[in-house]
Amino acid sequence: MKRIIIILVILLILVVGCADKEQPPQVKPECITNADCVAATCCHASECVAKTEAPNCKEVFCSMECRPYTMDCGQGYCACENKKCVAKITS
């Protein structure tokens, strides 16, 4: 009787240990190339998002000032790094 119980416990441990593990959800990349990324805001952007998440800037008027630590006036650009859109502030 003890032998049967021990065998059943061992079999139970083996079955539980071999059960399929749940796979993590697949995360869709924001970008593949830099061209897939755009400024996150219409004016004085300091962050980038995927083109599919781009703001609607159709009727937005921005000041002509070049704010520091933004992508204004060529001070930065959007890039795709590790499948995420990031702002590269150069000046």
Structure description:
By secondary structure, this protein is of the alpha+beta class. Helices cover 18% and strands 20% of the residues. Strands 1-2 form a two-stranded antiparallel ribbon. Strands 3-4 form a two-stranded antiparallel ribbon. The chain is rod-shaped and about 85 Å long. The model has no long low-confidence stretch (mean pLDDT 88).
- Uncertain segments of ≥5 residues (pLDDT<50)? none
Number of domains: 1
- Biggest sheet architecture: 2 strands, antiparallel
Radius of gyration: 26 Å
Write a concise keyword list for the protein shown above:
91 residues; alpha+beta; two-stranded antiparallel ribbon; 1 helix; 4 strands; 18% helix; rod-shaped
Describe the secondary-structure layout:
Layout: H1 2-17, E1 37-39, E2 48-50, E3 76-81, E4 84-89
Antiparallel strand pairs: 1-2, 3-4
Task: Please summarize what this structure is.
The protein has 91 residues and is of the alpha+beta class.
